[in-house]
Amino acid sequence: MSQLPFDPLLLSVVAPLAVAAAIAFGLPKRWSVLLAYAGFGVPALIALWAWIDYSSAAQAHGYAYLVRHSTGLDGLGISLTLGLNGISLPLFVLAGFVGLAAGLYAIRSGAERLKLYLMLLLIMQGGLMGVFASVDIFFFYFFHELALIPTFIMIGVWGGRDRNYAAMKVTIYLTAGAMLSLIGLIALYVKSGADSFDLITLRAYLAAHPLGATVQHNIFGLLLFGFGILVSLWPLHTWAPLGYGAAPSSAAMLHAGVLKKFGLYGLIQVALPLLPLGVGGWAHTLAWLAVIGNVLVVGFITIAQRDLKQMIGYSSVMHMGYAFLGIACYSAVGAGGVVLMMVAHGFSVALLFLLATSIHHRTHTFDMGEMGGLAQKTPVLAAFFVAATLASIGLPGFANFWGELSIFVALWKFSPLITALAVAGVIISAIYGLRSVARVFFGPATDELNRVTTANPPADLSWSEKLPALILLAALLFVGFWPKSISTPLNATLDAVYSAPARSAAP
Amino acid sequence: MHFVPPMLLPALWVLLLPLASAALIALFLRRSGGAAAALSTLVAAAIAGLALTLALQGDRFEYACEWLKLGNFSLSLGIKFDDLAALMLTIVGIVGLCVHVFSLGYLHDDAAKARYFGGLSIFMFSMIGIVLADNLFMLFIFWELVGFSSYLLIGHWHEKQSAADAAKKAFIVNRVGDFGFLLGIVMCYWANGTVNLTELGAHHVFSTAIPLLLFCGAVGKSAQLPLQVWLPDAMEGPTPVSALIHAATMVAAGIYMLCRINVLMVPEALNVIMWVGTVTALYAALCAITQRDIKKVLAYSTLSQLGYMVAAFGLGSTEALNGEGKVVLVATGVGAAMFHLTTHAFFKALMFLGSGSVIHGCHHEQDIFKMGGLRKKMPLTFITFTIGVLAIIGFPYLAGFFSKDAILYLSFEHNKAVFAVLAFTAVLTSFYMVRLWKLTFLGEPRSAEASHAHEGGITLTAPLLVLAVLAVLGGYIGLYPHAYAGVLELVPEAHGSAHTTIFITSLAVMLIGALGAYGFYRTAATDTLQEKSPGVFGLLVALKESFDAVYNYYVAKIQQRFALLLNLIEQLFISGLIIRGLAGLVAGVGIGARMLQVGNLNVYVYWFLFGLVLFLACVLGVS
């Protein structure tokens, strides 16, 4: 238990929600903006503190900062239990930092109806911190829904091209995914017989009374496809590029960067440890869907994109394929690789969406065919974009490399053939990544771009863009150079899960 | 390993100084090109000094620390400093410093000088990482990073479409090679339980797949057939970069890597490696004959020489007994390959910097048919360049003579067919080199640029002098300090009749090629070969262009169309049908797609509440 007089994790959830509530109750705009800084800053600071403090914090049941808050539903086994373990800590940190970056960007974005925009973003932020701090599956799910709803609204109200269609499609897909995973979670609750949503209780109970293999297989299937839709498992992925293409940048940053990781997180934190026999029957289906669908087919589709934001959206779908491959391995290396990948991808995709919007401000288009030569006018923007692209295609020195590498290493044990196909994906990502850099920034400018830039000479990255970008880039580099900052706590938690002889326990 | 070797600290300095330099430049010196250039060059000088200290004081050590651990997978970063690393580090240090100094003059007026020198520092960091790496994962990490710095520097003048394309191409083609390399490393890890070079040397399983997959990395980085296409294009980068990265050090990293993993080799793999190198040597030499661009000639020459090194590595295999009494292969090609790598680094860097001096003197004219007469205009460049040419064509008692003879001797002993091809390649080498030399320096100036050519300042000429000395002396193994004995003792030496045969052969091929070119080419504005024998000329051009034609066809006609087709299916079928299906399903359930109107806050809240109610209902139902 921490020595603080309050529960820091609860504060990280409540602070943004409280600011959102204050804005909703009619705070004037100036105060709204000021308080919004606090609403995004407090969770980020708590995340930073937790990251530094975690190794020295007291652990209980494998969690640090474990606090149980009564909700009045204790009889149902529902309580607001907050805590961090090695799996949730990296994602909690991710949520805090990406939230701060998205928030800073939004505050200075000059969006129409700024107060409403910030309010929704703050609700999202509160939900996100809650998702990863929750030890209770009920609240884990609740916070996800809380963060998801603002996404729909933000796409619908502030979205770009095709926003109505995009919002509808995203809503249908994500609601379907959420419902499916909800059914799976309820089935888990019902079948376990532990009468508790608390992960610690569930884990202990299921270790003593393992579920039958068929039950595990069926529940895992529900969770896999439910969560799978939320993480854009091929072929249920088409909401993602469309939605991100239409979403306003801060919403895209938070959703693609953080909220989308909910499904993977659920699989790693809930499904794999509680249903160790469930993954076996699905592993090959999952791995083939991921490698052929997400990595190769979507990889080629990414190459074909002209629209910068769609390209980033598709590349994100592709990278989720690697995460699914890591899950299929069912090993500490694979799962650890997925967590590293989630964190890295979260930072890099958020950075890419931010920069894509910055590019749009200067070119007035997302069509890469109408750009070119922008590096001469905006060298700093170009440098950031090159760095973000190289991070996302897995260059060592950036966090993404560790995720991909660990997954490839784990995958070889699972299937060398699938590994070979997956590694081929790194060529594909180099193609679309460098091609987009070249089309936007290098070579001579196109006539279309010249027309736009003659009318509005583009300025290089301003501080309101540079600061959030720096936060994300610094995180990518820090983890890239010092992966132990994440892998050490992660490994301790994974060891407990994957060294246990769970696979042979069930009848 | 708790014992900390005393020389660990300087080794860490040599690795981290350039990283610090790059970071400082990126953060603070972006707008101050002069300061960035000074910082980067000072660091390069410090690296050269430290490298020589480390190499010569004789202390050899290994040190590693764990960098990432997940489950049973552990990755460490470590330093393996043996004689091989010492030799490579020395080359990187010396050539690196020469190139930095040369760049001070060559890019004096460049608008993005800070970015250039930052890139050079990143390159030094990455390259030294490769040299010092004690395991394959670490090698791969820095392998990718040199690829990145190469990308950055090839694309230095990114406003030129050709430079941007070349940078992209280099990175992607290298990734194709790295695809195999990475698979090989992962396979090696699981097969042997380790990727540490020393541990692999002590014990490893026999496999043909592992060394061949690892060799893919070398095929990409050292531009061997069929992935050679990126290197000629990489000449879009500033000329000092071509000297350092695309001639002396990075492209040689493939050969260095092979020498690092020589314990893993098996005869089948070595056979493949030998032939890939041999064919590349011949192919590139043929391509070099038709080039008009001074840098392109040198680029194909580099390819060809890299082919020599790869062939040398593949050639030298003898069987021996290991500690456990098993027959293992000792790849003695390491000696010949590394020796040629060393001399080549000196004389090729010399010629590239010489070409840089020529290009600088001729106001960025690169066409040798528009040069001529530079002998008088640029005497110092002429003399040093001539030394480089003599060294590469194997003129007796210059550097290339000894190292090329070692390779010819190896092939003579092991495989006569390879010997014949390599000897013929040597004819071609002296042919295209003398052609280049004659057209550039002899005769009369053939353009305004050439007639106004002038020698550059001290920063341009001093590196030429240093490298020229090394190109003369680099072949005398006796002159090398004992510190490099671990590698240089492996260099095969011919004795008796074999020695005579090799000496006569190499002298003969050198003279045939050189005198042939000297007599054949006129110092004129047109290619003599093209005029006198357009058929041969056309054939050689077609040979050069065939690979690019195939790849371009693949990229434009197959890959792009396949991508567009998949995209079409995606947009029409998956996107369209599934969404309609789901919408229909939702409507069928009775919730009414109508309710899904966008932007309507109530609907979402209903959805949300619906979920929660469902949740609670289920919970209550069961408890």
Model description:
The complex is a heterodimer of chains A (507) and B (623). In chain A, 75% of the residues lie in helices and 3% in strands. Chain A has helices spanning 8-24, 29-53, 88-107, 114-133, 137-158, 163-192, 199-208, 213-230, 239-246, 249-259, 261-274, 278-304, 308-329, 332-363, 374-377, 379-392, 399-414, 416-441, 447-455, 463-481, 484-498, and strands at 59-60, 63-69, 80-84. Chain A has a 3-stranded antiparallel beta sheet. Chain A starts with 7 loop residues before the first helix and ends in a 9-residue tail after the last helix. With 623 residues, chain B is mainly alpha-helical. Chain B has 25 helices and 4 strands. Chain B has a two-stranded antiparallel sheet. Chain B has a two-stranded antiparallel ribbon with strand order 3-4. The N and C termini of chain B lie far apart (57 Å). Residues 588-599 of chain B have low confidence and may be disordered. Chains A and B meet through helix 5, helix 6, helix 12, helix 14 and helix 16 of A and strand 1, helix 5, helix 6, helix 24 and helix 25 of B.
Summarize the structure.
Chain A has 507 residues and is mainly alpha-helical.
The biggest beta sheet of chain B reads:
2 strands, antiparallel
* Oligomeric state of this protein: heterodimer
What is the count of DSSP helices of chain B, taking H or I runs of 4+ residues?
25
Sequence of secondary-structure elements of chain A = HHEEEHHHHHHHHHHHHHHHHHHH
Average pLDDT over all residues of chain A = 87
Query: What is the first-to-last residue Cα distance of chain B?
Result: 57 Å
User: How many strand units of chain A?
Assistant: 3
Estimated share of beta-strand residues of chain B:
under 5%
Low-confidence stretches of chain A: 502-507
**Number of E-state strands of chain B:** 4
Rg of Cα set of chain A:
22 Å
